[in-house]
Specification:
alpha/beta, 127 residues
């Protein structure tokens, strides 16, 4: 009986070690699975102007919340101010595209065109 109990204890220790090793990886994978939304705002000087409480974005983020997408819990939001003229939108568009968000929200046709070129995808223009 002594050998069997030692064997069980060893199995439990090994299984506990495997579980402890995998748990952080599983949590990291769960975090990776969170959809990423990039909001690109022409005319915004800083990310603060693009906060969910800012008048321009309040209704948008309220609707996301209503649909169960809560920033930080079930949605990762990246904010990209684009204070420049239309000739300078390509660098910000390329920087946003390089981050490979799941969804990009933008306004102004010239910014949308730059994002479309940078992503190599067709982007629905819903202005």
């Amino acid at each position: 009986m002594g050998q069997q109990s030692t064997l069980r204890a060893t199995r439990r220790a090994v299984l506990a070690g495997i579980a402890a090793t995998l748990a952080p990886r599983v949590r990291a994978q769960e975090r990776k699975a969170m959809p990423r939304l990039a909001v690109v705002a022409p005319g915004a000087r800083s990310e603060d102007e693009m906060d969910a409480s800012a008048p321009t974005y309040r209704a948008f983020f309220d609707e996301l919340r209503r649909r169960g997408r809560i920033e930080g819990n079930s949605l990762d939001v990246e904010r990209h101010p684009a204070l420049s003229n239309s000739a300078d939108f390509m660098p910000i568009a390329q920087a946003v595209a390089a981050r490979k968000p799941d969804v990009i929200v933008a306004s102004r046709n010239s910014l949308v065109a730059a994002l479309q070129t940078a992503t190599g995808d067709r982007i629905a223009n819903r202005s």
